[in-house]
Specification:
alpha/beta; 32% helix; Oxidized Rhodanese, domain 1; 5-stranded parallel sheet
Length: 333
């Protein structure tokens, strides 16, 4: 799905903001390990690096700077959605921002966290006073973790213009930008998604099973190194390790100390060095524990680095690691 950009002039500003982003990680994910990972993923890495004809098309319009948003707080067609905890929103937020619960974008199927149905998300957007034609700017305080998950959710169902605030609340507060404690008074709408969901950016269990050993697929595990190797096993999964052939880059490695994304060239080097690069005709599948960090990797790989075919395995390790019939590398408890 292509973004219908309303304000084309922001692209250059967004690229500039990304280019000067800080490069030291702040989120407490562990660094990548290379031993087991390199051995497990050698074949996939070799395949992914063979073709030099990859066409990268970064989409800088998917992020906005804090300066850009500061100039839009009185624009009724630009709506900032605050994805932090409710008490943090009440203590102070970006002027005009609307609080929305991240739980509205997810559902539980047994022990597995999955993308909520379209009507549930549409109802939450309507309650928040969002219209289909609005530009949505998403921010959190976790290195864009929830912002990118919600951006992916909106892309699946077809909201035309959603963007991520580069640096999130962390950068906004550090820059001493204006804040407010007044809750938004936007009138509720009858929000509805138009058209069919974009299933090309969603991966299910069957597709993931078929991806193992498929040279047209590159699998990116965005969990920590300890989760990847099986040392850190998290419920409801009962087995540790990773999908065979998967390559590991923790989502937080793509974020700088102030919460901003790393510059594009650094992001590319980060994923390239782990073997996560797709030639033309290849698709990157991302996964994590519950699909949240996987959406962050999806956003970086697709919209900031510019790979054209990237999709999220929404069931992620909660599903894969809870079954006895899945293939696993690293460890099986």
């Amino acid at each position: 799905m292509r973004l219908n950009v309303k304000l084309k002039w922001i692209a250059a500003a967004s690229v500039a903001a990304l280019a000067v982003a800080c490069s030291s990680g702040a989120v407490t994910e562990e660094p990548k390990v290379s031993g087991t990972q390199a051995a497990a993923s050698a074949t996939a890495a070799t395949t992914a690096s063979k073709a030099a004809s990859t066409t990268l098309k970064p989409n800088a319009d998917r992020i906005v700077s804090i300066d850009w948003l500061a100039g839009k707080t009185s624009d009724a067609s630009v709506v900032a959605l605050d994805l932090r905890a409710k008490d943090k929103y009440e203590a102070g937020h970006i002027p005009g921002a609307v609080w929305i619960a991240t739980a509205d974008f997810n559902q539980k199927k047994g022990d597995i966290t999955e993308l909520a149905p379209a009507d549930q998300i549409a109802a939450a957007l309507g309650k928040a006073g969002i219209r289909p034609e609005d530009t949505i700017v998403l921010y959190d305080d976790q290195g864009s973790l929830w912002s990118t998950r919600v951006a992916w959710s909106l892309d699946v169902y077809g909201h035309k213009d959603s963007r991520v605030l580069n640096g999130t609340w962390t950068a906004w507060a550090a820059a001493n930008k204006p804040t407010s404690k007044d809750a938004s008074t936007r009138a509720a709408t009858q929000y509805a998604f138009a058209g069919a969901p974009n299933t090309s950016i969603v991966v299910n269990m069957d597709q993931m099973v078929k991806a193992v050993g498929d040279p047209s697929k590159v699998v990116c595990d965005s969990r920590t190194a300890d989760e990847f190797t099986g040392r850190d096993l998290r419920a409801p999964a009962t087995n540790g390790g990773h999908v065979p052939g998967a390559l590991n880059v923790a989502y937080s490695d793509a974020v700088g100390k102030s919460g901003e994304f790393l510059p594009v060239e650094e992001l590319r080097k980060l994923y390239d060095s782990a073997g996560i690069k797709a030639a033309d005709g290849q698709t990157i599948f991302t996964y994590c524990q519950s699909g949240i960090r996987a959406a962050h990797a999806w956003f970086v790989l697709k919209h900031l680095i510019g790979y054209q075919s990237v999709a999220v395995y929404d069931g992620s390790w909660e599903e894969w690691g809870a079954r006895s019939d899945t293939k696993i590398e690293g460890a099986r408890s």
